[in-house]
Structure formats: structure tokens, C-alpha cells
Amino acid sequence: MKLEPLRSKHIRRCVGIEHILFTGDSPWSARAFRSELDAGGHYLVALTPEGEVAGYAGLAVAGRRGEWESNVNTIGVDPAFQHQGVGTALLRALLAKADELDAPVFLEVRTDNVAAIALYERHGFTRIGMRKRYYQPSGADAYTMARPARGGSGEATG
């Protein structure tokens, strides 16, 4: 797999994966992806050797130099490519970006997504709270998880 910045040409496939993965919980639209890219988020795709989108991930960064905070907004892996390290590679790339900024990282994850919770815990996240009925329209609960800042330059770059 090769990771590269998510571009407009990838959005249609990302939306398709969203609809497979998050049917009951308001999958992101093309407009939502475009909005995140326009806002300057750090979004990546994982591409197969043939150039097919196997997964995607996004990190939002807020604040100012020395006070950055980041949030994993999404990670999605096509079921055909799950359990092959794609999600791990995407998460590690997002965390590397947060580490460059010395930013803590936050995220929400469904309380019943055991595999994702285990992935996040392996990468230093801990549960810090619960959001009841966070995912809509399913009403599924979410854990809020956090990973402390791990040092870096504090420079924000796309």
C-alpha cells in the first residue's frame, strides 16, 4: 500500500466505502469530504499498487502554534482490504502528523467496535468519556479517546 494525500479524484471512492461501512450512521457525503479538504485537514488515502483506494483517514488540527489539538475525524478501510494493516498504516500516519505538531489527539469510536478500540489502545489512546447516542440515526454510543502529545516542532503544515 502507498499512502498519499486525499485528492478530489479519490472522493467518489471514499464515499462508496463510507456507504459500505457506515450505512446505519450517516455516512459522509462527497460534500463533507470536500469541506474537510477545503478546511485544510490532513487527509490521506491508502492506494493499492493498481491505484485503487483501499482506505482513507483524516486528521483535523485546531489551535495555534504551541497549543495545537488534533482530532481523528475518520478512518475507513474497504472490507476487501481489512486485516491487512491498512487501518494501522493510516492511523500511524495521522499520529505522525500530530506528533510533528506536539498535539494531543482525540477521537470518537463506537463502543461496540472492538477491533478499532483495540487498535487505538495499541497506539496509546485511553478512554476518557462516553457520548450517549453519538452516532445517528442508529443511536449508538461512542467512547471519546485521547492520546497525549508526543513532541515535535509545533509547526502546522497541511
Automatic annotation (TrEMBL):
Signal peptide: none annotated. Residues 1-150 form the N-acetyltransferase domain. Pfam families: Acetyltransf_1 (PF00583). InterPro entries: AcTrfase_RimI/Ard1 (IPR006464), Acyl_CoA_acyltransferase (IPR016181), GNAT_dom (IPR000182), YpeA/RimI_acetyltransf (IPR050680). Keywords: Acyltransferase, Cytoplasm, Transferase. The keyword Nucleotide-binding does not apply. GO terms for molecular function: N-acetyltransferase activity. It comes from the Bacteria. Belongs to the acetyltransferase family. RimI subfamily. This is Ribosomal-protein-alanine N-acetyltransferase.
